[in-house]
Amino acid sequence: MSVKKRIIPCLDIKDGRTVKGINFVGLRDAGDPVTLARQYADQGADELCFLDITATIEKRDTLIPLVREIAAVLNIPFTVGGGINDVMLAKEIIKAGADKVAINSAAVKRPDLINELAAQLGSQCVVVAVDTKAIKLPDSDKSIDKVFVAGGRVETSLETIAWCAECEQRGAGEILLTSMDHDGTKNGFALQLTDLISRRLGIPIIASGGGGTAAHFETLFKDTHASAGLAASIFHFGELPVPELKKQLITAGVSVRR
Amino acid sequence: MIAIVKYNAGNIGSVKNALNRLGVDNQVTDDVEQLRAASKVIFPGVGEAGTAMEYLKDRGLDDVLKNLTQPFLGICLGMQLMCHHSEEGDTPCLGIFDTHVQRFPATPGMKVPHMGWNLIQSTPPTGSLQQPSALLAGLPHSSDVYYVHSYYAEVCKNTVAACEYIVPFSSMLQKDNYYATQFHPEKSAGVGEQILKNFINLP
Question: Which residues pair with A212 in a beta bridge?
Fold first, then answer.
């Protein structure tokens, strides 16, 4: 018996509403996060991910009550991320009812944050979100995968594979790997990179960016060792309802929760 | 009123939320009289066995919990604390169930903690109780539930549902008025809700 492959709808939250960007820009409103959350749980989503992209300093004033509200209605696990940069806020989010926190830019800025969160909350509560983009090398047709931060706006000096390995070694419980090249395209996941990382690391990899059809999820689970596939707009706008996706995956022989 | 045992473990709020969703009157408490008077008691928990047992002993709750007569449900760490002994911190536990808790052996390609959706199967391996658990009423022979744990209880005569991850382990234990799940019914969607309802409806 093995653990089932997970389908994770992701809800980007801005000022308490759900939004989804196309290639990280041009946001459109997709509805009330609490209503959407309950809907996804009822449809058979295995887990949910909420990323708060509100750009205010007082974000905890809106985020914590929202987490509490979501926890009250949701009967499946959920992760909360977006701008979490200290252990205090992470603890408050877990206390409000989230099962895991996701950290991104703050981990790159101060990698010890991963160790501190793992020590205080347990690795199973700590997801490191990694935004990656292939950068073409000059005078060559080769490219290198680099980590981006600040919502994908800022390139770092970190190489994606090495950074993911470091996150694991520091105590991350999972990696949420978002390919910026694929995000919003609905042309399929970044299979090669996901496969490399999911084979190399001992912790689960959640693949994100590019999932547009059931066939894309099937390929993800058959051609890589990813533990979960995450997507947003295809679920929010009813293009690929979770029950339909799962039905097709079961037919294709992928082990998912019925 | 269902009492939820208040102690130094996480995840107590999730269980309260789940009972609220089912419309059941509940209270988080460590008051001995309230625990004794409750119609049912739930003992949840996410955390470390050693510090949790120490906390219970310091407040005399260990003796109270193992001598209750109403239906009692341990969840995750709660279930592990109901066993004889845990390898985590070499901790003597409540000894309600005749089994001990150990860490999943390190195995290449197998991730620990065992985290995610995996099976509960109501037909346990040989040597266990043979009657189906009242908590599984209305559910198919096997269902998926949500697990997060690095330690497991060995299959024993109190096992009423099992799962296998690296090794076979007890997914549900049961003895007299004591029930327990290794998985999190409060995070296991409809299947978990059915199990909680079955517990709430026990006579």
Answer: none
* Residue whose C-alpha is closest to residue A85's, from A110, A53, A49, A122: A110
CB B128 within 8 A of CB B158: yes
The DSSP bridge pattern shows strands B85-86 and B91-92 to be antiparallel
Q: Does A123 touch chain B (CB under 8 A)?
A: yes
Q: Which residue has the tokens 């549900």?
A: B172
Query: How far apart are alpha carbons B181 and B105 in whole angstroms?
Result: 21
Cβ atoms within 10 Å, residue B22: 14
Over its length of 203 residues, how does chain B's per-residue pLDDT go in tens digits? 999 999 887 778 999 999 999 999 999 999 999 999 999 999 998 888 999 999 999 999 999 999 999 999 999 999 999 999 999 999 999 999 999 999 999 888 788 889 999 999 876 545 555 567 899 999 988 899 999 999 999 999 899 999 999 999 999 999 999 999 999 999 999 999 999 999 999 99
Beta-bridge mates of residue A79: A49, A100
Residues ≥6 apart with Cβ < 8 Å to B192: A75, B18, B145, B146, B183, B184, B185, B186
Q: Which of A4, A41, A123 sits opposite B189 (nearest CB)?
A: A41
Contact call for A1 and B13, based on CB within 8 A? no
Contact B59, B87 (CB under 8 A): no
Report the residue from B113, B119, B187 with minimal CB separation from A124: B113
Cis, peptide link before residue B113, omega less than 30° from 0: yes
Q: Which of A196, A193, A165, A162 is nearest to A180 (CA)?
A: A193
Q: Could you tell me where the beta strands, DSSP code E, fall in A91-142?
A: 100-103, 126-136
- Please state the pTM of the whole predicted model: 0.92
Euclidean distance between CA atoms A196 and A159, whole angstroms? 13
